[in-house]
Amino acid sequence: MSKAKFILKEPNAKVETLIYLIYNYQYKRFKYSTGETINPKFWNKTAQRVKASKQFKEYPEFNSRLDKIENGINNAFRTLLNDGIQPNNTLLKEVLENELSDNLLKPKQVTLFEFIESYIEESKLNKTIGTIKVYKTTFKYLKEYAKKYKPINYENITLEFYNHYLGFLKSTHNLSSNTVGKHIKTIKSFMNEATERGHNKNLEFRNKKFKTIREEADTVYLSIDELEKIEELDLKASPRLERVRDLFLIGCYTGLRFSDFTQINPENIVSDNTVIQIRTQKTGQRVSIPLHRTVRTILKKHKNRLPKSYTNQTMNDYLKEVVSLAGIKELIETTITKGGKIEKKILPKHKLVSTHTARRSFATNLYLAEVPSISIMKITGHKTERSFLQYIRVTQKENADKLLTHPFFN
């Protein structure tokens, strides 16, 4: 028996989320974006309609639109059967949209720029500040490109646009390859979301040639010996540097991101002060991390309540001072593709250290200590071993030293 129902894309969201029509027929499942959005607090899951509420006065009209969509899919299914045509998802979608068109129920045509603008506002409630900043910058570049060359809407996001836009970002803004890749990835995210909500039908952005470019960054990690040098520094004369050092070491021995290791509080210390348990801000994952000796020492020093952090940028500036005082000044050659040209620099190691070096150091040091990759990934959140191995920083010599202990070489 065929049956229609409506479900929310994200039923636990705190902001408006998309409503899907689900139609089960002949042991098949048809899923269709209604183009309608609603805050879950106004949704009656049992009735699959909007609740009667003074806060949402337009609920009768809203529910009427859902009724027409439900009638539309039922009519579409019957029409196909009556015409002797075996229903499938493609045909159902086509006939349904004809039904809705006759009822003037086509979703309001929202332009790509209108969608991005509203999506950024919506994301402020459930995305990190860093993500919102990337969204805004990507949107700024898109508007700049449209003003300089031609208007942009969904149908313009093609391979031709992709190739031209890469050149625009590299030449006009002199961006590195990884930054360009980040903005392409964001455009694909915008297009995916717009497609999910029924605004876009152009899927050329999913072509494998419409790819997110990336080059391996010259990032560094700090070895256990180097971390011990940092820990042994006497920084009592400089409280700002002592605070930064302590917070950074917490990151180095927990693998947490800056946004997480700066938010640890007494409630996160569990199992008789042997484990940190925290839900990460970026992914929402709950992770459990054994307390390293250094972490226990620092937590005891601050009575399990870490000092307030500086901003990430300020932390990075002060951190370079701390690492320099520890005598970590090895010269490192770096290369970066910027504006389409390869730039090489030789910099002392301490200038390449940032708060994110803590997380990379954690992963690399555990890997070199023969901790199984899968155990490390449980903490870092990497989904595949391939992505994890790209993340850690192990030199050819360190890899050879690690293999020396393997039975194959003995």
UniProtKB/TrEMBL annotation:
Entry-linked Gene3D superfamilies: 1.10.150.130, Intergrase catalytic core
Stretches assigned to the Core-binding (CB) domain: 110-195
Domain Tyr recombinase: 217-404
GO MF terms, alphabetically ordered: DNA binding
Any coiled-coil regions, as ranges: none
GO terms (BP aspect): DNA integration; DNA recombination
InterPro entries, per database record: Arm-DNA-bind_5, CB, DNA_brk_join_enz, Integrase-like_cat_sf, Integrase_catalytic, Integrase_recombinase_N, SAM-like_dom, Tyrosine_recombinase_XerCD
Keyword vocabulary terms for this entry: DNA integration, DNA recombination, DNA-binding
Taxonomy, superkingdom: Bacteria
A Pfam family reported for this protein in Swiss-Prot or TrEMBL: Arm-DNA-bind_5
PANTHER family documented for this protein: PHAGE INTEGRASE-RELATED, PROPHAGE INTEGRASE INTD-RELATED
Family under the similarity heading: Belongs to the 'phage' integrase family.
Name the UniProt record assigns to this protein: Site-specific recombinase XerD
Organism: Flaviramulus basaltis
